[in-house]
């Protein structure tokens, strides 16, 4: 009996092709490994060593013993969540407005949204100082126009930090949200209307859910970036808004070894994963029991 | 036999340029500082003239702080010969074993302000943490002591204060005489007492500043009414139009210093270089670029600094009498403890 | 048709311009209650625009649209109570099949149990029982089409609009669904307007077909009338395969290539053309009485399965085609002379357009 012609050779060709494709991802894997996993892993290990390099939980005990760390972590999440929430509201409205415009105008508007990307984060942050501080543009004009009579504390506090962070993070939400909105088919909205949905119902029951994945992606990026923000809280927070990155920086200077700062980083990482895990669970539950399922 | 001689020739050939390179490299010193206007001044007044005097070349680099020095020392990749650093930082680096002992047979410190040099570091210039005020708010009658700085009734307005451990003013505001401050701080409960006093000030602190540039900017912008900060920064701010005045009364006299990292490639030359830039004429020259005073008191005596200008420098004898010299020994011992208490206070 | 389940539609002078383009040119249209009417036309003819205007998605420049007695031209879509089936189906991907079908009922605040019952009923109607829990993206094209249909009728609208509902399906399924839509319509009885560019689909499904071109309704008639007695050359050309041959008049008689034609139907005034349909011509072995006879030469044969299309050049030089059975014995050879017969009742004259 004769074997089917070329079967083995064709199989080998297929295997070779798969291998070549896998090979293409090797540089990326190596890069990620070298630039992400190794250093993070190294810091993680360091966090379990004491000053003399012996294994120890001293760094974590210090995190627990000192109330400042809990407060810093709390503030970090508080600010990140607030910023993300503000970005969702503002970014969604902005993306919605852009998505309603003719594409050419939308592109121009998007350019405006992306403008902050071309400016250094430090410049942007100091620009906010010029606007927000006691003798800044907003206070001067607000008082000149008689809107308020004593300078408002717009900066060197939590609101100032939030303003600065929201400004910086907004594009990260607007981009995916805008993309999701442009991808919504007009027929879906028309179908909803023809089925009896008022414009408000069309928005909440069809448009919004359809754009939610884009918003969620953007919100996730914003949240993660916020957790690591350093310059903005340092400048616009006036030293009163202490976030994890700022504490890591001061710990690096303060302690002999990297472990102290690494421990804080490790805790932040673990808490973030925990929170995201929780968030995905909540979203899934919402899908299960969501109002649109019968 | 023949082969071996061939090999020997090859080694000799390879070694020759190597040796030549080494000989040339011995004349180049790597000097590291914080960059910016400060390093520009150092370069013009100290580094380049000293290089010329010693017949060497100086390669200048910048760095970000103790952590970077620590990292380099620990990884054994020390390429720096002389590093400009803060006094407290230098003291701690010395304790951590990151520094070479300075060779005071080579470096002449007989005219230095006592306490501005130690085993591992030597002061290069002196500055003061002063109470500065916005003259738009208080005119010339600003706070004359830390007690005034703390007194929100007598001086209503917002304050800015450093975001890292600065406890001496708190104790002085609490009535501790300047010469007792470090004794109290070193005694049990001393840090807590200072922290409690800080908590009194905290509601009036609008900004905890993190860089000298920021403290000056705050005054320039009129963002706060009072700042506890470095005198040189306020002089700069005033030159660019800020309405700011300050007093040397109860000021903390601090100094920047030079250190030689452990394992510096050219340790001996580094010592000679440090000796050179510690001479009074160099220190006097530095004051032409920046309003930090010399640590070598002879710099005031050689006629290189005009008398009226000398009076505005933090290390002028008339001013030092009113000031409290920073105690690096205390910082070495208590920085970690105090910094943690300080951070707890700030986040409360 | 049951009154109450359907409404007549009256369209008067509805116009819509897009810049210089007249998408709808003063359209008048009467759709009877319970009727299945198809709007047929080439792309860009305005048929979809008319449907969008009826659904309320596009705002016309002027005109009147009445559903029954109610003027609806200014009503927003959600208040028109019209079921719409979209070419893309427009199923909501964030809802299950049952979620999609129940959507209009939830909007109408129908009680939960009632919704479940009616959704099940609707699924039953489109033969998708038990698939309510499926995700929309787990369905085949045909199944999606049915879900879209079920969703459009579940709230018992008295008017159903369909925009190219079958165009995304493959040919076999499409033909099957044409029959099914027809029977569904018979059961539900709602006035139905369907847009298509596929003339066979239009003829198969509709009670009447309105042929639209350049924003105007060219003819509205039953499928048979449309095919047999097209009002003009456009309709004749768009519905079915046609050839047009110029005819001459000699007194009361009409001549083609010098021979008088026997014509059963009406004869228009003025210049006209003879409409020839390939399947209405017969290849004759010998002349037969009672038929109009045409002579020509076979150019080529195209085998098409159920039939063979024979390309013929007539004696006068016109090229036409004749459809004939595929039985090999009856086929003429290429290059052979053929005699073609055309019954008088199939001999249709179309007046040349005046304008």
Model description:
The complex is a heterotrimer of chains A (294), B (348) and C (355). Chain A has a single domain (38-289), classed as MetI-like fold (Orthogonal Bundle), CATH 1.10.3720.10. The model of chain A is unreliable at 288-294 (pLDDT under 50). With 294 residues, chain A is mostly helical. Chain A has 13 helices and no strands. Chain B is built from 16 helices and 9 strands. The radius of gyration of chain B is 23 Å and the shape is globular. Chain B folds into 2 domains: 2-126 and 255-320, D-Maltodextrin-Binding Protein, domain 2 (3-Layer(aba) Sandwich); 127-254 and 325-347, Periplasmic binding protein-like II (D-Maltodextrin-Binding Protein, domain 2, 3-Layer(aba) Sandwich), CATH 3.40.190. In chain B, strands 1, 2, 3, 4, 5, 6, 7, 8 and 9 form a 9-stranded mixed β-sheet that branches. Chain B is 46% helix and 18% strand. Chain B has 348 residues and is of the alpha/beta class. Chain C has 2 domains: 9-237, Rossmann fold, CATH 3.40.50; 242-351, OB fold (Dihydrolipoamide Acetyltransferase, E2P). Chain C is built from 8 helices and 21 strands. Chain C has helices spanning 47-55, 97-107, 112-125, 141-153, 171-188, 199-205, 223-228, 233-238; strands spanning 9-18, 21-31, 36-40, 62-67, 70-71, 82-85, 159-163, 191-196, 208-213, 216-221, 243-246, 248-250, 253-256, 259-260, 272-276, 281-284, 292-303, 307-314, 319-325, 337-342, 348-351. A 6-stranded mixed β-sheet of chain C has the order 6-7-8-3-9-10, sandwiched between helices. In chain C, α2 packs across α3 and α2 packs parallel to α4 (141-153). Chain C starts with 8 loop residues before the first strand and ends with a strand. At the A-C interface, α9 and α10 of A face β6, α2 and α3 of C.
